[in-house]
């Protein structure tokens, strides 16, 4: 599953978790009756369990959707610029050293 799909489903599962938690609170306070589905009464405990499961799925999919590619550290811009400058300096020094070796061999 690609990152955008993970982000989408993370939001969807977060909404489901929120809805189940809100319904559980409303049922606990007596605003609505316990739902009856397939001839069975589903108590508040089931609603909280569903909310917890949907929250866990949302967090997992959110992590997969918003994490960076493997092997790349999230550095502040100033650190990234410093790292890139050091890499350029190292590459330049290697080039200079190789050209000096060629000049010394020719002399």
Automatic annotation (TrEMBL):
Residues 1-21 form the signal peptide. It comes from Mycolicibacterium chlorophenolicum. Keywords: Membrane, Signal, Transmembrane, Transmembrane helix. Residues 72-107 are annotated as: Disordered. The chain crosses the membrane at residues 45-66. This is Integral membrane protein. Residues 80-101 have a biased composition (Basic and acidic residues).
């Amino acid at each position: 599953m690609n990152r955008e799909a993970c982000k989408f489903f993370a939001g969807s599962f977060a909404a489901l978790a929120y809805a189940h938690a809100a319904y559980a609170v409303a049922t606990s306070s007596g605003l609505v009756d316990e739902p009856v589905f397939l001839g069975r009464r589903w108590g508040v405990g089931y609603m909280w369990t569903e909310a917890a499961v949907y929250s866990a799925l949302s967090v997992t999919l959110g992590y997969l959707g918003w994490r960076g590619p493997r092997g790349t550290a999230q550095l502040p811009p100033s650190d990234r610029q410093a790292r890139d400058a050091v890499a350029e300096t190292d590459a330049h020094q290697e080039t200079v050293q190789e050209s000096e070796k060629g000049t010394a061999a020719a002399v």
